[in-house]
Amino acid sequence: MTSTIPAHKGPTPAIEVRGVSKHYGAVHAVDGVDLRVEGGEIFGLIGHNGAGKSTLFKLMLGLTPLGSGEILIAGGSVRGSGFRATRRRLGYLPENVVLYDNLSGLETLRFFAKLKGADLRQCAPTLERVGLAHAGARPLREYSKGMRQRLGFAQALLGEPRVLFLDEPTNGLDPQAIRDFYSVLQELQAKGVTVLITSHILAELQQRVDRLAIMAAGRIQALGTVQALREQQQAPLRIELHLSEQDVGAARQALSLLGTEAIVCRGTPQGLSLSCPREAKMAVLGLAAGLGSRLRDLSLHESSLEDVFFGVGQPANEAAAGGR
Ligand SMILES: Nc1ncnc2c1ncn2[C@@H]1O[C@H](COP(=O)(O)OP(=O)(O)OP(=O)(O)O)[C@@H](O)[C@H]1O
């Protein structure tokens, strides 16, 4: 079967979401979302519990009927009659994948392959790809949480999907398994596969997504690369100055002469830690250069995705995100 989904960035995006809403009674699970994901992107979707991430995934997969708006996958509507064929080339790992304890790992993959119309010969290599070749004959009741999660990922890989939807795929995975998981994603990306991924582990996504969207209360609150989001948020930089104890006072004084109250300065065992607005960066670096050999070392740190996430202004809880 030939893919209907383009492998690389082109005029037709892998996914296009136009003005989509889905309400459950008073709960606006998804509320006027517009989004475009290009072919071959690894795209992160983050947000608090109940923000609407899983609902948006299900709408994109055609598993939940749209309330309003339109979603196109490879240019074809999820409402269209041709979407059944497109869905065969989509992979989905739900947040809670349902598995049958009495089946073995290999039997489970065969079951999913049949459902999807995928080649059964893919099952054994796919098990190997997720590091479960050794456990293929064991019943799932003997699988650990991480093994079940790997198996869930394996079923999403069946049928050589061109777009993968992974809802909290690294839940329960150990650090090595998380690394292995992302290296599989990179291999897929190199082949032009588009990946959408949700996770609450923001440090993990930070280095691994091309772009991401922050959702809250069913809406996209911010969208872009991690660096673009930092800039949009005007997230401060952290600058560490390593100084001897007797030079800390002089450095503090020099900093106060910059006349930027927004620079927050804190003593550390190594010297000083500054929280510095982006626009003051060059002035601080100039000042640091002026300290000459008194400055033993300097390091500059961008704010984390977690800082950016909290900067976007999240509702305190699901209740805040729900009915309006
Ligand atoms: N079938 C449903 N019926 C009623 N309400 C629903 C249904 N599915 C989702 N919701 C509600 O829609 C909102 C968004 O839920 P969703 O599962 O999309 O959030 P999420 O961002 O994936 O959350 P989490 O991070 O906890 O997985 C929540 O308020 C949820 O209770």
TrEMBL record:
Keywords: ATP-binding, Cell membrane, Membrane, Nucleotide-binding, Transport. It comes from the Bacteria. Residues 15-242 form the ABC transporter domain. SUPFAM superfamilies: P-loop containing nucleoside triphosphate hydrolases. Gene3D superfamilies: P-loop containing nucleotide triphosphate hydrolases. GO terms for molecular function: ATP binding; ATP hydrolysis activity. Pfam families: ABC_tran. The keyword Membrane applies. Belongs to the ABC transporter superfamily. This is Cu-processing system ATP-binding protein. It comes from Roseateles oligotrophus.
